[in-house]
Write a structure and sequence with these properties.
By secondary structure, this protein is mostly helical. The chain has two domains: about 45 residues, no CATH class; about 100 residues, no CATH class. The chain has eight helices and six strands. The strands form three sheets. The chain has a two-stranded parallel sheet. A hairpin with a 2-residue loop joins strand 5 and strand 6. Helix 2 packs antiparallel against helix 4 and helix 2 packs parallel to helix 5. The longest helix is centred in the middle third of the chain and has 18 residues. The relative contact order is 0.08. The mean pLDDT is about 85.
């Protein structure tokens, strides 16, 4: 409460006002339910919010974001269904279109996902399904994933996300020491953590 008032006062000092209707409260890992107010008006509590195209939830995980990404990638693929069914385009052309128009939508923001086996499997299942349709492989036909990836020049989703993550980490570590992104990556919070195994994070 005091911090919110301090931020509001500091903003007002330079001619900026906090918009009460657009400001939301997302509580993470806390039992406190006291309302957050600005000028006597309570701010709305929310469970999730979207920031720069990525969904952030109160659990701090990536499940909601991945689910939304798969949904958007499905929509992108359906828009290109005529291209996928075309007899005039080669398989290589179809795969290139899939990589640029569908896969980029699917893996947007994957550099910072907290991945689990379940998340990787959902992503891989969607990719494999699209590739099988591009190659016109029926559901009853038996073909291994390795053969599927070889014929479409693909790598496993887990490996692709890992490469994107290392590339992003490299860019971040090359930033100035006072950069907020670099500080957030190397930040070591103080205090005691809760009992039990820590959740998987980008650094664990």
């Amino acid at each position: 409460m005091q911090k919110t008032s301090s931020v509001a006062a500091a903003s007002a000092a330079v001619g900026l006002n906090i918009h009460k209707g657009k400001s939301k409260v997302l509580r993470y890992n806390t039992a406190c339910t006291d309302p957050i107010t600005i000028d006597g008006e309570d701010l709305e509590d929310i469970k999730t919010f979207t920031y720069l195209g990525s969904i952030i939830d109160e659990q701090g995980g990536s499940d909601s974001d991945v689910k939304a990404r798969i949904g958007k990638a499905k929509a992108a693929y359906l828009q290109l269904r005529n291209i996928g069914n075309s007899k005039q385009l080669s398989t290589n052309t179809k795969v290139r279109i899939f990589n640029t128009n569908v896969k980029t939508v699917l893996l947007y923001g994957a550099e910072t996902w907290r991945t689990t086996k379940a998340i990787i499997q959902k992503i891989q299942v969607f990719i494999n399904s699209c590739l099988r349709k591009i190659l016109q492989i029926r559901w009853a036909d038996t073909i291994s994933n390795n053969v599927l990836w070889e014929r479409t020049n693909q790598i496993p989703a887990e490996e692709e996300i890992r490469k994107k993550r290392w590339k992003w980490i490299g860019h971040t570590l090359r930033k100035a020491p006072n950069c907020v992104t670099r500080q957030a990556l190397t930040w070591n919070p103080q205090g005691q953590r809760k009992k039990g195994r820590p959740k998987n994070t980008l650094r664990r």
